[in-house]
């Protein structure tokens, strides 16, 4: 049974379709079957899907592809634009999910409440490869190369990552940025031959420690400091907004974690469980952005991680 990687792009976003077109200009592609009105192209064990909706709107593409073709989807990689208040040019990599949303809440950017996709083991290795390729194409320091926290959809239950170009239309349309993203995928998946990058099944015997990021801002600066070191694996990155916690002083004054409202436990648990499925035999270690928490928050989070059996690590524990 054929195992394939799905690459997904949308024609309505230049930061999505441009890297896809750059890839299609490379050797070896042939037309594949259509999935309703979604075109596909094949190259070795890679399938590139092009649709014309929002990138976060097409749910369950993995299941739908398997039903159409009989192929087994191993991982899904999405091309997308990135927006930021700063408008700073950036190339970003991140896992997806909205694990903090409660049933009945409406995800504004796709996904479903309480869900986190299994994070691609390639996230850490590809961030480092992206930095190398971007530097060789003179995009650094103009473009920031960074992780983002776990956020948005679409729904998939395969190991997943997003590759994004930011942060304004001028940069979404940059062909040099699109070329760098395409080269990252071409080299990272070894489409042209050689050895792929970030293959957990092959590489984890050297280091099976996986960083689960807890706390901090959207661009995970404390976690980035660790992930840029060679050999570090990274899973979900739960920024502060993905850890809603209600101050117990506002209720009964009790500070044990049972009294702390909010969906923070659900968010951590869903992300941890998705990580265990993505990294079999991995040692999942939480890395906390300690400065981003108040003392009662840190106490509650460390207690809950202990209940889950998750070790809390310092930077040196990931190498």
TrEMBL record:
Keywords: Hydrolase, Metal-binding, Zinc. SUPFAM superfamilies: AF0625-like. GO terms for biological process: D-amino acid catabolic process. The keyword Amino-acid biosynthesis does not apply. Pfam families: tRNA_deacylase. InterPro entries: Deacylase_DtdA_archaea, DtdA. This is D-aminoacyl-tRNA deacylase. It comes from Cucurbita moschata (Winter crookneck squash). The lineage of its organism: Eukaryota, Viridiplantae, Streptophyta, Embryophyta, Tracheophyta.
């Amino acid at each position: 049974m054929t195992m394939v990687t799905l690459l997904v792009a949308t024609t309505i976003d230049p930061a999505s379709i441009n890297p896809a077109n750059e890839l299609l200009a490379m050797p070896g592609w042939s037309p594949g079957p259509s999935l309703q009105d979604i075109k596909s192209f094949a190259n070795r064990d890679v399938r590139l899907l092009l649709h014309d909706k929002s990138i976060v709107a097409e749910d369950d593409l993995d299941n739908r592809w398997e039903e159409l073709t009989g192929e087994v989807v191993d991982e899904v990689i999405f091309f997308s634009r990135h927006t930021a208040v700063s408008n700073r040019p950036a190339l970003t990599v991140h896992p997806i999910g909205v694990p903090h949303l409660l049933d009945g809440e409406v995800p504004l950017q796709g996904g479903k409440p309480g869900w986190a996709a299994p994070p691609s083991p390639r996230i850490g290795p590809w961030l480092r490869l992206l930095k190398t390729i971007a530097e060789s194409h003179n995009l650094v320091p103009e473009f920031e190369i960074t992780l983002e926290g776990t956020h948005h959809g679409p729904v998939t239950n395969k190991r997943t990552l997003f590759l994004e170009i930011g942060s304004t239309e001028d940069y979404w349309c940059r062909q040099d940025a699109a070329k760098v993203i395409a080269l990252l995928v071409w080299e990272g998946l070894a489409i042209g031959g050689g050895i792929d990058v970030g293959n957990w099944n092959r590489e984890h015997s050297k280091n099976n420690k996986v960083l689960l990021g807890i706390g901090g801002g959207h661009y995970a600066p404390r976690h980035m400091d660790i992930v840029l070191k060679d050999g570090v694996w990274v899973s979900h990155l739960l920024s502060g907004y993905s850890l809603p916690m209600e101050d117990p002083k506002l209720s009964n004054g009790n500070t044990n974690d049972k009294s702390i409202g909010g969906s923070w436990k659900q968010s951590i648990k869903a992300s941890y469980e998705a990580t265990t499925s993505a990294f079999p035999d991995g040692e999942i270690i939480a890395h906390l952005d300690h400065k981003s928490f108040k003392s009662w928050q840190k106490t509650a989070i460390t207690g809950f991680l202990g209940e889950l059996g998750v070790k809390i690590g310092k930077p040196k524990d990931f190498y």
